[in-house]
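Saturday, quiet lab. Running sequence design on the structure tokens for the scaffold JK sent over.
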């Protein structure tokens, strides 16, 4: 008959990573019990943000987020991801296609007064607005809309702004047709496409405002979206292979942008390529992974293999 003689000891602390809020090291410890040469893990605890991160303790319980252009193509995927974590005020010139938790206001981003009123009391702004076809409306939404948004951010002391646009906001034909490993920090060459040009001008407005005021702008670049759960959408053909991401994966970048401490951003205006990992390396998503902690979910192999 043997008697158990426990030998309790703390294992040395092991770094488990860094807190996504304050960038401090997070450790885990294991309390082990030695019994007949067998180590039984009695206790394993990962020190989480909830009880260690001072930034989370200081942050208000629920940030107030203004979303411009929430009824567009990306909004119905982004809003469900954010609605349980943040107090949302969603705006668009048309009604919302989905129900959601939060406030809705009918706002024309081309109207400074309307954008200024919508931004009152907000902690951050996400701009999802877009219009591609009409020349005047494209400038009103993509260029003037960015100006109005930044004016409102300055007036209301909003330090965090997330803007969105297509990949050729930065990488137009002169890049895309002749090079690879294209990164978001290249000098912008949008070309003469109406959509690209108006979005690029809007981005430049955001950059100038960030230089002159205490505002941090994150610019997220997208291109082709696909739903891996929709066979019809996965069968669509076109120039999909240079840049792909699922709708669901694209929506997950926004909580990362809302949670990252502003001091961890390299500058007050940063651009990120948001796409899945693709084998040809035409565009790079390394910066989004490194700074924001972005993780591609769907490789969408069924589409790019068609190329």
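Result came back. Writing it out in full:
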């Amino acid at each position: 008959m043997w008697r158990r003689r426990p030998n309790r000891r703390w294992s040395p602390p092991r770094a488990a990573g860094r807190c996504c809020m304050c960038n401090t090291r997070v450790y885990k410890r294991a309390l082990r019990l030695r019994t007949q040469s067998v180590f039984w893990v009695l206790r394993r605890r990962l020190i989480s943000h909830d009880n260690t991160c001072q930034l989370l303790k200081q942050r208000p319980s629920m940030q107030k987020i203004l979303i411009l252009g929430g009824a567009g193509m990306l909004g119905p995927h982004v809003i469900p991801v954010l609605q349980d974590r943040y107090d949302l005020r969603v705006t668009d010139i048309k009604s919302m296609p989905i129900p959601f938790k939060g406030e809705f206001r009918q706002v024309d981003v081309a109207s400074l007064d309307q954008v200024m009123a919508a931004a009152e009391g907000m902690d951050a702004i996400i701009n999802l607005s877009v219009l591609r076809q009409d020349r005047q409306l494209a400038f009103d939404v993509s260029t003037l809309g960015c100006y109005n948004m930044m004016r409102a951010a300055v007036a209301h002391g909003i330090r965090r702004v997330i803007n969105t646009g297509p990949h050729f906001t930065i990488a137009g034909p002169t890049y895309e047709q002749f090079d690879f490993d294209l990164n978001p920090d290249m000098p912008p060459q949008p070309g003469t496409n109406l959509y690209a040009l108006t979005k690029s001008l809007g981005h430049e407005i955001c950059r100038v405002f960030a230089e002159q005021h205490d505002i941090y702008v994150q610019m997220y670049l997208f291109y082709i979206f696909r739903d891996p759960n929709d066979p019809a959408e996965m069968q669509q053909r076109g120039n999909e292979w240079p840049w792909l991401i699922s709708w669901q994966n694209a929506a997950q970048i926004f909580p990362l942008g809302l949670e990252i401490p502003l001091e961890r951003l390299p500058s007050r205006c940063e651009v990120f390529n948001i796409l899945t990992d693709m084998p040809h390396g035409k565009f790079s998503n390394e910066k989004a992974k490194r700074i924001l902690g972005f993780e591609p979910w769907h490789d969408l192999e069924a589409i790019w293999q068609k190329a």
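Notes for JK: The first strand starts at residue 9 and ends at 10. Residues 64 and 122 are 5 Å apart (CA to CA). Ask whether to fix the surface positions before the next round.
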